[in-house]
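Subgroup meeting minutes
Present: P.N., E.W., G.H.
Scribe: E.W.

1. P.N. recapped why we're keeping a running log of single-chain structure predictions: easier to compare across weeks, and new members can see raw inputs and outputs side by side.
2. G.H. added today's entry (363 aa).
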Amino acid sequence: MSRRLARLLPLVLAVVAFAGAAPAAHAWEPRAAKYGVAKETNAPITMSDGVRLFADVLRPAAPDGSPAPGRFPVILTQTPYNKNSPQLNFENDYLVQRGYVQVIADVRGTGGSEGMWDSFGEREQRDGYELAGWVHSSDRPWSDGRLGLFGASYGGINQIFTAAQHPDGLKAIFPIIPAADSYRDITGSGGQLNTAFIPSWLGLVTALGLLPPTYTGSDPVTAAQVLASHSNGLLAFQANTLVASSSGSDTAYDGPFYRTRSPIEVIDKVDVPAFVMGGWFDLFQRGEPMLYQRLRENGVPTRLLMGPWYHLTASSGAGLPADGVPAPRDLELRWFDRYLMGRPDPGLDADVAPVTYNELGDG
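Output recorded in log:
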């Protein structure tokens, strides 16, 4: 080979390689809002035992404010903190404005819903499955049958219980700061009864459940009955659980009560893509990686994001975007777009690592 050819060969190979290379992928960007938000309040949903749960339905809206025509994927959110409470209802206008319907339901015995509250009990878990079925049904003129679950804290935990029952149409979940073990993560943190969190949490749910429902003016009889059942639940569940735990009765120790209410007991039944978001200073920081690990071991498409957050700051993702980690709302949109709406996203695996965490101490 001549010296001149030898000098030209690398250049020729480089040109050939460039010509045959695939074009560089464009970085993912959130799409602009296309819709407004139209809200229908207090839609009654009858459970199999006759108890009615009430939900708000947030639909994509046309420019004149009326619901946009057509069917859309639906995000189901379940809260015990009264769907009329800002932030505590986990309302996500960002997703609605980009083509999702969000249904926010008060769990049994809370907010405007009938019945008595029994936190994460078997009946409440069944309610999650039946709510999902109501949302999925073709009887809903705004639902295209594709379902996702969204919410934080309590609204993250109940996603796992609902997903474990495999409701029709469920495609993906996004649990933010979920507990794994209700005894070790909540009641007996560090081996001692958590007397700081539990009374204040039970008090919050109780207070918000005793607010007059927003349908009081149009249906005062139902409103009165609902408030009466909530008051009865205060003695049957909240007060009884608190007294029994602090006095050394059964709920002071691990057992069937807590196993029924622990997502780690059913996580192996979850088979839809799950994005778990947690905080290093959250009271559930022990459980969040455990849930991710089990999902990962079972081959479920999953991600874990751990940031320097407390329980009340985790859902906002304070400090994000940072160091290539997008804001939570963009992560939520990208996750649901890919797995619920079915939008192609070939760069997801490269852009969002299986585990992303803030390294404590380095800022």
